[in-house]
Amino acid sequence: MDANQLATLKEENVMLRHEVQVAREAANITAQLVIRQFEETDKVLQRLQVANSYLNALHETTLKLMGRLELADLLETLVTRAGALVGTSHGYIYLLEPDEAEMKQWVGTGVLAAKANYRLKLGEGLVGRVWQTGQTLVLEDYGAWEHHLEAFKDVPLRAIIGMPLKAGSQVVGVIGLAYIEEGRKFGEDEIAVLGRFAGLASIALDNARLYAAVQRELIERKRAQAAEQEALRREIDVARNIQMSLLPQALPNIPGTHIVGLCVPAREVGGDLYGYYELQKTDLNPQGGYAIAIGDVTGKGIPAALYMAVSTTILAARAPFVPDVAQLLGEINTILYPYMSPNQMNTALCYVRLEPEPGNHYTAHIGNAGLIAPILKRGTQCEYLDVSGLPLGIKPAQSPYRVLKLPLQPGDVLVLSSDGVVEAKNTVGEMYSFERLLARVSSAACDNTLYGCAHKIHQWILADVLTFIGDVELHDDLTFIVMVKD
After folding, report:
1. What's the rounded Cα separation, in Å, for the pair 85 and 100?
2. Could you tell me if 187 and 282 lie in one domain?
3. Do 343 and 469 sit in the same domain of this protein?
4. Which of 200, 215, 230 delimits the end of a domain?
5. Which stretches of the chain score pLDDT less than 50?
6. Torsions phi, psi of 392, nearest 5?
7. For residue 101, how far is the Cα from the chain centroid?
8. What was the pLDDT predicted at 217?
9. What is the pLDDT of residue 206?
């Protein structure tokens, strides 16, 4: 091998070594780029994982917040969930006071729990600045901040963030979190996700405040309703007292008879009435006489009580001077019709005039305008008398009421009753019924005194009705009269 060949070979070796070196350097650069790419990819993946965890947490928080309507419960949840998003247990919520002059700390967790109910004004401290600007404020070291509050110097705060809670464009509160560990900071990702959280929190807060406003309205309505009900109860009590005062306060003194009447009032004011009357001696009625009556105005409450009072007054004013029973019922109907018919009201009335006969005997003139027919017990016979007619106040004029004339015999028992007796219901909704009333009167027995007989039959009937209904509340008055002829 000559010198030229050796020189060429050396030159080729140098070039080969250079190419190898270049290749090595290129491989190193490529490896570094690949490693860097992997590192960047890993960082992106990590950030994606963090972002995904934040999104999952936000979704879960949204579901939890939307279900919270009680304000205190909601605020506690807001701070707890916000702290969980960024890994801190130290947080707070301030809300605008009703006078809008101050904000008050409603909730504090961690080291900020000690500042419960702390108040501050617009522009004061971090919260006051967020309130004033409507913008999120982030500090890396609260203690080093020139506007920090002296009241918080005993709280070991480091990094801290405050975010506005808004209703429309108005700041109504501030939510914040803090780190107490040195070196921890709120990064861009944390700030962004907490900003979204604050938006959700504002919506939830609006819902809670709306719920609280509705609850207050409901409470006020309930108070108003309770006041109205109390006023109505007092009015009903007054109406019931007036109603009871219009009923007889003593037993009647009608020679040759003994009479016991009673009205057991229901919980609601009813329209039952009864009365005893002495008929005046006139040219048309030279013998005078007596009368008993029992009635029931349709409906319940104040209207029934008012029409009961009207009916009682008219009856008391006309009965002593109108001996003809059919004429009396017709006159009362004519008076009541213009007032009762437009209001779909009427008065059922059974009226018995006792026409004197020699020896303290009587002929009963019985007229019935829509009430339960009276029961006559005579010896072993007991029956409803066949006498009926339309209630008073339904039609302006009608054919004369039919009147049954019945000479009374010694020992006769006459029972007049309102429909509250036969329609009284027991615990299973079964009515006392016409049949039970008739059977009870039929089985009644008397003692030797006539007053005792009337009283005993009256109590005999009442006890059976009350036993039948048991604990069921009365929804209609129980009114009936027992008359025994000596």
Report:
1. 30
2. no
3. yes
4. 215
5. 34, 38, 41-42, 44-45, 48, 50-51, 55, 58, 450
6. -75, 140
7. 37
8. 84
9. 75
